[in-house]
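Data card: per-record layout.
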Amino acid sequence: MNYLKIVPLILLLIGSSTATKLIAQEKKPNVLFIAVDDLNDWAGYMGNNQTITPHMDALASQGTFFKSAHCQYAVCGPSRASVMSGMYYHSLGFGMEGSIQREDEEVVNAVKEKGSSLIYQYFADYGYKTMAAGKLLHHHVPEETVDVSHGRGSWDFNLDENGKKKRLNWFGSKGLLDWGPIHKPENEMSDYKAAEWAVDQLSQEHNKPFFLMTGFMRPHTPLYIQQKYLDMYPLDKIELPPYKADDYDDIPKAAEEVWNSYPDVPWAIKNNQWRKMLQAYMACITFTDTQVGKILDALEKSPYRDNTIVVLWSDHGFHMGEKSRFQKHTAWDRSTKVPLIIKDPRSSSINGIAKPVESNVQLIDLYPTLLELCGLPENKQVEGQSLVPLIKNPSLKWEHPAYTFRRGKYATVKYGSYRFTEYFDGSQELYNQENDPNEWNNLVHSSDEKYKAIIEDMKGLLQKPHAVLGYEQSK
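The structure for this 475-residue chain is written out next.
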């Protein structure tokens, strides 16, 4: 049947405005954009057999998940600025000479100065309705930059009778790290409210395609969560990550420059807290997975089910005892590696068969990927690579490195199975994660000549114009 001939009939039967809405929605897919704070790769679909994440697992099984996705800055604000801009943090003018953005408006303005737009603003320019709840940039997104806003999330602390923050287990610093049960109803948690808001948006009628963003705070510290989630992880059943007491014997002193004042594994062992910390972290992940599940279920029951691309990502990883740390910030895989799932219902497997991608990819690749999937014009300012070729062919050979920077501290690159890091003082680390996934054997000290050649090649990757710029300017 000739579609053009039936349009007038549609207009007569259902009204011109409704018909325009239906046609607009048919032309462009919606985007459901889910960010999870401080989530490492412990979700079940990534191979962790302890963490209970049925909803993320199901999403991964229906789409494409990237087994080696990496953030461009292992800290919340800078990482999110890169994701939303599709650019390296230093390219925005931050991260050099000790500077770092503090407010979300600074990111919006920096992107404008580059003649570009944040991803959701770019979608808005091409007719999308943008909606946001929770932590998306470092706090939320500036209210005036989205159509509908639920506002930023909160940390959900334990409070004493005077309304002051109450510590449970860790008293050694002013940081947010602590763990244990929270004495607050689940429906009063910031993430619960953000999920309910997103569910409500999916139940409403939208007259144009939408870009719906929801950012969850957990499992960011403090690791406070309801007892029912903690009970899902009996302490005597928790398996500890691998630990090597002399791991630091072959790492440079400069690596310590990004360590914070949080406890290390010897402290956790001595005080019998390691399993309790893991219990709280995994319980927070399961709580967040539950919220993600509510949104995905609402999408499945909505009229937008077959025309909504779903993206789930985290801003950076988090050490939970690996390499004796409990923190982010480092140049090691535990800090840079993040979950990344992209489900396009128009092309995903109908058999629920997961399509993992082994290649190293970057979070800044999300921006150009979504533009291509949604049929929007290319933004020539973005520095990432569209992942659509990998979505179409997960085994495709991918030659692009993945970079992570830390202002004034290090530049690190993941290429193939190797991770190479150069610190501010010129000291280095090289690991082959194919046979050393824990990064215990620093090959910089190897006498094998082949590693000297590999080091030179990896140093060459750090000399790429867009990479060396950030490293040199951050010194």
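Known properties of this structure: Residues 152 and 184 are 19 Å apart (CA to CA). The chain has a mean pLDDT of 91.

See the next section for split statistics.
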